């Protein structure tokens, strides 16, 4: 048995996305069909459509989603029909070397649904990050579903599935921001703004938001930034040093993904500070640093992969904080849109007009 639903696909490299009908099979062993309630528009969806991530067109886009479990396949016990779930793109195995060493966020044996969703003519679709949630319903592995408080708004909850978790996790999990720390976040788009919110949750005393767009700095203030720096107007490294008594910040989070901003992050940290790279670089980007500058400082340089999150641990906790009014997930939702407005949302994203556009069903 399959059912037909509406969905957004990228058929060929660079072509605008299309809203089409797709066939979703009943869940097989270990699989779940989710009735999608909301799915955010992320840069990665645009990267799939533009080419560069993979050549396996057509893609079924969308991967920042929350929904309600419709049906479950054989052997699925962690979730049941009717559960409200946030989807994740790293269903961990629990058995590989990383999982067994207590670092499941580095699992190298993550998995997705085995069956394929298809176009009506039988063409297999490749779901973005193994999710594909710009669709009324989607098929995922049970491990990609985390049950959370059903009273949370789906638009806000779905954002935890990717960019917002990456940012919060970069601060809390990777950067280990602690009470009283000074933190600087370079780049305050969706990911950086979430790093600001995460630093605030962790009790940082000083949170310096850096961006080149005053609109982003205003949002960062709403989420807990105590200081803002427009990097178009002043040298951000000097500004951060000045704001931290000449020392630099205890934790500097780079959320742009460029060599210049990574260099700034490196020099804006305290001698014993931590630099966290969460911005995604492209393969040709390199950075040269004087070794003596690396040697002359303690601390650490880290990268954050999906916020080093463990969905089953982090999603329910963050939804609880949201429900208690301690984490403003709604601030990330700039607009809610219909399924056939994804292409328009890509344009607004490119113009820097939105933190997140979210498709609601
Ligand atoms: N200095 C400071 N901020 C900058 C600079 C700069 N030189 N250049 C760009 N920015 C700001 C932009 O104004 C924007 O607010 O960085 C922000 C980038 O945010 P988005 O484009 O919204 O991207 P986001 O979704 O936040 O992701 C940021 O993290 O996960 C990765 O792939 C993602 O590399 C991307 C990064
Ligand atoms: Zn594993
Ligand atoms: Zn994403």
Automatic annotation (TrEMBL):
Give the organism, scientific name. Streptomyces javensis
InterPro entries for this protein: ADH-like_C (IPR013149), ADH-like_N (IPR013154), ADH_Zn_CS (IPR002328), ER (IPR020843), GroES-like_sf (IPR011032), MycoS_dep_FDH (IPR017816), NAD(P)-bd_dom_sf (IPR036291)
Q: Which cofactor does it need?
A: Zn(2+)
Could you tell me one molecular function GO term of this UniProt entry? mycothiol-dependent formaldehyde dehydrogenase activity
Which NCBIfam families does the record cross-reference, listed alphabetically? Answer: mycoS_dep_FDH
Q: Which Pfam families does the annotation name?
A: ADH_N (PF08240), ADH_zinc_N (PF00107)
Q: What class does this enzyme belong to in the EC scheme?
A: oxidoreductase
Against SMART domains, the record matches this protein to: PKS_ER (SM00829)
Q: Mind telling me which PROSITE patterns this protein's record contains? A: ADH_ZINC
Kindly give the SUPFAM superfamilies that the UniProt entry links to this protein: GroES-like, NAD(P)-binding Rossmann-fold domains
* Keywords annotated in UniProt: Metal-binding, Oxidoreductase, Zinc
**Designated name of the protein:** S-(Hydroxymethyl)mycothiol dehydrogenase
Does this entry carry the keyword Ribonucleoprotein?
A: no
| Enoyl reductase (ER) domain boundaries | 15-359
Q: Which family does it belong to?
A: Belongs to the zinc-containing alcohol dehydrogenase family.
